[in-house]
Amino acid sequence: MTPLVFSFLTLFPELLEPFAREAIIGKACGRGLIDVNLVNMRDFAENKHLKVDDTPYGGGAGMVIRVDVAQRALHSLPPADEVILFTPAGQRFDQRVAEELAQKSHLVFLCGRYEGFDARVEGLVTRELSIGDFVMMGGEAAAACVLEAVSRLRPGVLGDEESHQADSFSSGLLDYPEYTRPLEWQGQAVPAVLTSGNHAAIRQWRRGEALRRTLERRPDLLNTAPLAPADSATLLNLGVHAEQLAHWGAPPPPAQRRRKKDTSSS
């Protein structure tokens, strides 16, 4: 399989180097499953001081990265499926976007600093992304988040090919709680169903716990999560009203079977 190439245009490539070198990402790079290309925009400054920014027209604090520098850096790269700019105005990055990007072959990310890029850079990109409504000092940390989220979806990157499918957000719900040894710790015991060996009961318990956690902590996710009739029955048992289920577009719960009357004579 052709590796997915991540090209990061940054003023501080040393901030992203550890993510390309260590742990699962480093192993995936070593096996040729992904490729991380760190491009220092200062290499395209075309001045002896390697200056890539300038004062903003109209005045104001801070410095702005020049559009011509960004364009020269982009033109040094092979064609990309997406050229992505991190910006507060961008599309919110989530699991669905990660799954979409994991299908590509070459992704380019522009990591801003200072007061960001000249606004004309927006004409050079295909997509704008945001990882949340907060202010950071640069785009490198956001780039590391996207690198990890997208890379783990590529075939072969994770040891267990199905492990990411049960993760939070992949199923549309928060993940169920996990337990390991010791069996009992400070008066807290591992739920008995997990040691029962009954795999059907374990799957049912895990699904129920995922629904419970999502309802308690992120009920907004239930508005878009793919729910089955059995999930609707579980949510009803958790105290959700039928009107709320209808608002979420959840299917009706399974019809309860009526017990036949015993007509045999004594």
From TrEMBL:
tRNA methyltransferase TRMD/TRM10-type domain sequence ranges: 6-223
Subcellular location: Cytoplasm
Superkingdom, taxonomy of origin: Bacteria
Chief place of localization: cytoplasm
Bias kind Basic residues: ranges: 256-266
The enzyme's E.C. designation: 2.1.1.228
A molecular-function term among this protein's GO annotations: tRNA (guanine(37)-N1)-methyltransferase activity
Region: Disordered, residue numbers: 245-266
Metal-binding among keywords: no
Catalysed reaction, written as an equation: guanosine(37) in tRNA + S-adenosyl-L-methionine = N(1)-methylguanosine(37) in tRNA + S-adenosyl-L-homocysteine + H(+)
Matching SUPFAM superfamilies: alpha/beta knot (SSF75217)
The keyword rRNA-binding is assigned to this record: no
Enzyme class: transferase
BP GO terms, sorted: tRNA N1-guanine methylation
A GO cellular component entry from the record: cytosol
Keywords: Cytoplasm, Methyltransferase, S-adenosyl-L-methionine, Transferase, tRNA processing
List of residues binding S-adenosyl-L-methionine: 112, 131-136
Similarity-based family: Belongs to the RNA methyltransferase TrmD family.
NCBIfam families: PRK00026.1, trmD
Quaternary structure note: Homodimer.
Function noted in UniProt: Specifically methylates guanosine-37 in various tRNAs.
Name of the protein this chain belongs to: tRNA (guanine-N(1)-)-methyltransferase
Organism of origin: Deinococcus cavernae
